[in-house]
Model the fold of this input.
Amino acid sequence: MEESLTKHSLAHPKEKDECEICEMKDHLYIHTKEKPHVCEVCGKQFNQISNLKFHLRSHKKRKPHVCEICAKAFSERGNLTAHLRIHRNEKPYVCEVCSKAFTQVFSLKTHLRTHTKEKPYVCEVCSKAFAERGNMVRHLRTHTKEKPYVCEVCGKAFTEINNLKKHLRTHTKEKPYICEICAKAFSERGSLTAHLRIHRNEKPYVCEVCSKAFTQLCNLKTHLRTHTKEKPYVCEV
Done:
């Protein structure tokens, strides 16, 4: 290996332990947008060899750094350190605008966009902009009609994993959201939130015609038909 490097270095003006010209080439790829380093497993391309090496670990599935509290494993020590803050309730990254604190720096960066109104992720199809990359990825599926999350029970497909999780409860009959007041259980958090308004006597949905208020939006929509005289349900017989 050392002999090969020596021979290679002779092709350049100076003989060094590490080739400065190759290092410069990798740096120049950042400016030229070239990505010559290709992953042989998935085809993903990178402009620097170090980034490719880091990416290859995701295929090897080697996760030597294990959380002593919950046994979750990580490929990088830094990720484990960030994860441990969740257990310790440490939030060292504080927003200078509103003082909200976060366990990870990227969460703070994402939060700051709520103040700056910055939306750096733009849809290539319709130019709609988003503050978070994940939201843009989910939005793109409305164009591609892609539904990657498939129910193993009935084969129904979904664009988002959260929708699949909700759907699975129709099969398992699981109701994890429980009312602390009356112990009634619900399969979705939104249903519990709507139910709690009954106990709190909250009626946020107000009719603009007669000012009558309702705990749920669906009840307001039904009520509005008494004003519009709309009758959308027609007997087919």
In short: Residues 20-32 form the longest helix (13 residues).
